[in-house]
Amino acid sequence: MLQEQEAHAAEMERTFIAIKPDGVQRGLIAEIISRFERKGFKLVGIKLVVPSKDFAQKHYHDLKERPFFDGLCDFLSSGPVLAMVWEGEGVIKYGRKLIGATDPQKSEPGTIRGDLAVVVGRNIIHGSDGLETAKDEISLWFQPEELVNFTSNSEKWVYGVN
Ligand code: IDP
Ligand code: MG
């Protein structure tokens, strides 16, 4: 039992997920949260913020050479963004699966972008793409004290460990 608990603890990850201004404006917050929640992932941080353009540029710094960078940063800073941290086994990679491909025309039905978005410039949601980016993005958007450490009541049923 102890081994199972240790293995479970070792697999736990956190990822940064944001509903972009289009998703917030279109009233998709509950729909999107629900998909992560029903899967069994745990919400450990959440806030609604309007990022400055400077902040948006920091968030998307990897894309600064791309032609759409300026428009993307204008867009991200154009209105409220729902910033979240989700925790769970494999949540970084599986979160990206729930989200779907970057271009909603190529996202599978059943994914968030596949079901709820049509064009790449308005694809409603962001998710970290790896362990390092998850760490960087969580620390960019959240102070450590804004994240909550707790054991959810459902955890033993989701993972089969106490
Ligand atoms: P991701 O959001 O799936 O990780 P990235 O390649 O990291 O995709 O791009 C970040 C965001 O930039 C995308 O979610 C999308 O909003 C925007 N983007 C990506 N490619 C294009 C494009 O070709 N035209 C316009 N916007 C784009
Ligand atoms: Mg990305």
At a glance:
This protein is an alpha+beta fold. Helix content is 44%, strand content 17%.
Structure description:
The protein has helices at 2-11, 21-25, 29-39, 53-59, 69-76, 91-99, 112-116, 131-141, 155-159, and strands at residues 12-19, 42-49, 81-89, 125-127. The protein has 162 residues and is an alpha+beta fold. It has a 4-stranded antiparallel sheet. Helix 4 (53-59) crosses helix 5 (69-76). The model has no long low-confidence stretch (mean pLDDT 96). The structure holds inosine-5'-diphosphate (IDP) and magnesium ion.
Features:
single chain; 162 residues; alpha+beta; 4-stranded antiparallel beta sheet; 9 helices; binds inosine-5'-diphosphate; binds magnesium ion
Strand and helix map with partners:
Elements: H1 2-11, E1 12-19, H2 21-25, H3 29-39, E2 42-49, H4 53-59, H5 69-76, E3 81-89, H6 91-99, H7 112-116, E4 125-127, H8 131-141, H9 155-159
Antiparallel strand pairs: 1-3, 1-4, 2-3
Instruction: Report the average pLDDT across residues.
Output: 96
Residue share in β-strands: 15-25%
Overall body shape: globular
Order of helices and strands: HEHHEHHEHHEHH
* Poorly predicted sequence stretches spanning 5 or more consecutive residues: none
Number of helices: 9
CA radius of gyration is 16 Å
User: N-to-C terminal Cα separation, in Å?
Assistant: 9 Å
Largest sheet: 4 strands, antiparallel
Order of strands across the biggest sheet?
A: 2-3-1-4
The count of β-strands is: 4
Bound molecules: inosine-5'-diphosphate, magnesium ion
Percent of residues in helices comes to 40-55%
Q: How would you classify the helix and strand content by structural class? A: alpha+beta
